[in-house]
Amino acid sequence: MRTIAVINAKGGSGKTTVATGLASALAWEGHAVGLADLDPQSSSSDWLAERDEDYPEITAISTKNGLRAPAGLDIMVVDTPAGVYGQDLSKILNKAQTAVMPILPSPVDMAAAWRFLEQTLALKPIASKRTKLGLIANRVKPHTIVYRELTGFLDDYRVPVVGQLRDSMNYVRAFERGLGVTDLPEYLAGEDWAQWDEIVRWIESKRSQGRA
To answer: What is the pLDDT of residues 180-191, one digit of tens each?
Structure first.
C-alpha cells in the first residue's frame, strides 16, 4: 500500500485542503483511498464525515494504534499536524513513500517553509530518498509580486514543484460539503481540475515514489 504524507510544520499552510483534495482526486482516478487524520483539530475527519455517498468513497482511517490502514486500500493519505519537526516527523516519513508540502505565497509562510525544508531535507527518510518530497504552491494569485517571490523561493531547492493551486472560493464551498474541487462540476471547477491533474500525474509516476 502507498502512503502519502502531507506535511508543513506551520499551521494554516493548507495541509488539510491538500490532503482532502488529493484523497478526492485519487478516488476519482479509481484508487481505493483512505484518509488518516493526525491533526488534533480533526478537520480532515470532520470533512470526511460530511462527504456524501454519491461521490467516490474515501475510507476514514483510525490513528489510535498508529498509521495502520485496513485491507483493501491501495493509497493512504495522511494529514499531519502543525508543529511536527525532527524525529516525530521522521517517524511519519518512515511510513511514507511520498510526501507533499504546500507553501503559501507570503513572506511569513516562505520564511517558515525555508526553516522547515532545511530541517526536513536532512531527515533520513528524505536524505536517503526512501521518501520522495514534492512542493505545491498553494492559494496562488499569478502575476502578483509575492507570486514571483514564491517562484524564486521554490527555484532555490532541488525539490520538484509538482503543481500549484489557485486561490479560489471553490475550495471553501467544496470543503463545507465534504468535497474536493474535483467533486465539483467541470463548468465550475474546470481550472481546478486541470491543476489537480498535474499533481495526480506526479503522484502516479515513478518519480514520486521512494525507494523500497
So the answer is: 999 999 999 999
